[in-house]
């Protein structure tokens, strides 16, 4: 395992704990010698995690589609920036570069990207670990919804058990690494 793709907000969120956890996840990735693949911006949680990885001596690859370059300040201080023509190309690049995936708190874009890797795993397009960082209970509602999907036959038990859900960065990375053995 070399790199983890992290999907997260281009905003800081309403609670300081989100930024703190982004920094912690970035530091943990770098300390575990895992590179970061992310959306390529300097703003929000994306910027926090990238800065933390870089400050800890890790590798950061940002993937930024043309449509967002004007809106989100592209990080040029990271290891590598890959510009794509579309969001579809961005998502494919991130999936190809990553050996596992994590969603931190974020908005609809975070969920859209995370659910795509969940769906791809379900249909057998990859077998990479998929994590959900439930900082401060942010994803409690989603976790309940996943349970509702399972109870109603739209998500199988084995599919649901492939999702690694933890409340702290350290424990999530530990479990993802265990999943790769």
From TrEMBL:
Task: Print the keywords alphabetically.
Answer: Cytokinin biosynthesis, Hydrolase
Q: What is this protein called?
A: Cytokinin riboside 5'-monophosphate phosphoribohydrolase
Highest taxon, organism lineage: Bacteria
EC number(s) in its UniProt entry?
3.2.2.n1
Q: Which organism is it from?
A: Savagea serpentis
Which PANTHER family does UniProt cross-reference here?
LOG FAMILY PROTEIN YJL055W
The UniProt similarity line reads: Belongs to the LOG family.
| Top-rank EC class of the record's enzyme | hydrolase
Task: Show the GO cellular component annotation of the record.
Answer: cytosol
Asked if the record carries the keyword Hydrolase, the reply is yes
Recorded GO molecular functions are: hydrolase activity, hydrolyzing N-glycosyl compounds
The Gene Ontology biological process terms listed for this entry are: cytokinin biosynthetic process
């Amino acid at each position: 395992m070399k790199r983890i793709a992290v999907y997260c907000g281009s905003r800081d969120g309403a609670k300081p704990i989100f930024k703190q956890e982004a920094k912690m996840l970035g530091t943990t990735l770098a300390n575990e010698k895992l590179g970061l693949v992310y959306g390529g911006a300097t703003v929000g949680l994306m910027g926090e995690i990238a800065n933390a990885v870089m400050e800890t001596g890790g590798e950061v690859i940002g993937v930024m589609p043309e449509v967002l370059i004007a809106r989100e300040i592209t990080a040029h201080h990271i290891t590598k920036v890959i510009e794509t023509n579309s969001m579809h190309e961005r998502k494919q690049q991130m999936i190809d570069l990553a050996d596992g995936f994590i969603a931190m708190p974020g908005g609809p874009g975070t969920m859209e990207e995370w659910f795509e890797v969940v769906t791809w795993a379900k249909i057998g397009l990859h077998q990479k670990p998929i994590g959900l960082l439930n900082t401060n209970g942010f994803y409690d509602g989603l976790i309940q919804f996943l349970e509702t999907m399972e109870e109603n036959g739209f998500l199988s038990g084995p599919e649901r058990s492939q999702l690694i859900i933890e409340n702290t960065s350290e424990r999530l990375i530990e479990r993802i690494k265990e999943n790769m053995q």
